[in-house]
Amino acid sequence: MLNVVIISAACCVPGMVAFDEQSRKVIDKAISETGIIAKITIVPATSIMFGGAYRKIMNDMIQMNNKGKTVAPAILINGVVVSYGVPKLEDIKKALIKFTENKSNKEK
Fold first, then answer.
1. Which residues are bridge partners to 3 per DSSP?
2. Cis before 44 (ω within 30)
3. What's the rounded mean pLDDT across residues 98-104?
4. Which secondary-structure segment (H or E) carries 31?
5. How many whole angstroms separate alpha carbon 64 and alpha carbon 57?
6. What's the fold here for domain 2-107?
7. Among 3, 13, 37, 84, whose CB has the most other CB atoms within 10 angstroms?
8. Domain ranges within the chain, ordered by starting residue
9. How many CB atoms lie under 10 A from the CB of residue 81?
10. Alpha carbon of 57 to those of 11, 15, 37, 45, 106: distances in Å?
């Protein structure tokens, strides 16, 4: 099973909830279309800022945001960032497949 994490900025900017919801729909559809088993977790950015496991990613997000880039939500698969902002369906499907293939190759 893959672990998909959505790092949400809605805790800081309530208007970001819509982006989280759009991202969740894209991820759910990608999982459904690929048949890959994955667990989705939404993690508030504030919990990361105060010592969460993804603190470096949060720092990267802050730096990119300061440069005017849309970075929230960040989407991670097995701890690796695969998207910033609302992801595209095809990108998430490719990432899910890639991580599944990598896991299969490691198990051989």
1. 39
2. no
3. 82
4. helix 17-34
5. 11
6. Glutaredoxin (3.40.30)
7. 84
8. 2-107
9. 18
10. 17, 21, 24, 10, 25
Rounded mean pLDDT of 44-73?
76
Fill in the DSSP letter of residue 15. Answer: G
DSSP state of 86: S
Average pLDDT over residues 50-57: 70
The tokens for 66 are 């300061």
> pTM, whole model, 2 decimals?
0.83
Q: Which amino acid is at 44?
A: P
**β-bridge partners, 40:** 4
pLDDT at 48 over 70: yes
**52 — phi, psi (to 5°)?**
-70, 170
Which of 69, 88, 72 minimizes the C-alpha distance to 14?
Answer: 72
**What's the Cα-to-Cα distance from 50 to each of 7, 45, 102, rounded to whole Å?**
14, 9, 32
Sorting pLDDT into bands at 50, 70 and 90, what band is 57?
Answer: confident
Phi, psi of 70 (to 5 degrees): -80, 120
What pLDDT, on the 0 to 100 scale, is given for residue 107?
A: 62
